[in-house]
Amino acid sequence: MSASGGLSPLRSTPPGVSSLLIARLIAEPATLEASLESALSALAACDMPVADARMLEHCGEVLQIDLPHGKAADLRRVLDAQFGPCDLLVSDNPIEVPRLFVSDMDSTMIGQECIDELADFAGLKDKVAAITERAMRGELEFESALRERVALLQGLSEDAIAQCLTERIAPSPGARVLVATLAAKGCRSVLVTGGFHQFADPVGDMIGFERVVGNRLATDEGRLTGDLVGAISDSGTKARTLAEESEHIGDNAVTLAMGDGANDVPMLQAAAYGMAYRAKPTAREQADGWIERGDLTAMLKLLGIPEREWVAGE
Known about the structure:
- About 40% of the residues lie in helices and about 20% in strands.
- The protein is of the alpha/beta class.
- The chain folds into two domains: about 20-90, 2-Layer Sandwich (Alpha-Beta Plaits), CATH 3.30.70; about 100-310, HAD superfamily/HAD-like (Rossmann fold, 3-Layer(aba) Sandwich).
- Helix 9 links the parallel strand 6 and strand 7.
- Helix 1 (about 30-45) packs antiparallel against helix 2 (about 70-85) and helix 5 runs antiparallel to helix 6.
- The model is unreliable at about 1-5 and about 10-20 (pLDDT under 50).
- InterPro entries: HAD-like_SerB, HAD-like_sf, HAD_sf, PSP.
- It holds the Pfam family HAD.
- Its cofactor is Mg(2+).
């Protein structure tokens, strides 16, 4: 560590060598230097020598590691093993602020699963939550699992939705700041969910998303019918939304996607930066990085946006 608390630059290849892989991470400060030394050795053993390792000047918690060659999956595996719980982004291009952010809602932009909380008003939370958990892990086909859970809500009063929103649903820490700051940088944000517009529309407004895509619960005379209205919003919808929005923004637009479950995987794989937020193993394994240590503002740090430029969400 330098006197200022940052790592002195470490080079194992000559200056001027272009990097193929870039990793940025936020880890436990007390063990950062020892973890880095272990990571350097582990990477060298995998024939992935590090060209440079340094703390970002304007985001002092963020360690950047540059490598001239290697596989992103191997780099993530080594850093995961050596640094323990951390916030991480690995890219094969210079890291930029995205022009499009597409995010899942439940257990990502909010800390809850809306259908599970709504089921609690019908006395069925445990049963519905068990199905939700298996679907998020990829153990159940999404549409059939969704329809099964929705059917269990038949007869529940629409008033329960408003009550659930007021009493149970809240943005994840840092969600408003993340979306507002990205917007200030010229990034469009879209909320796309396998959940329901009755929740997602007010949540989108609350956090600052410009567009919301989701399913809609069918109602009749003030009660849920146990059915859905229209086409299903699923993993394919999420990936298509990312593609459609990217096309509107323009060629080579840098995109960021975030989610936590199996139905987020196609979207995460399609984005320039696919981020798993406190995710199930299925999503984490397919992502370019993850947030596990900090709140959602960790994404701003990994993008290199200094805290003085963050915007408080309304």
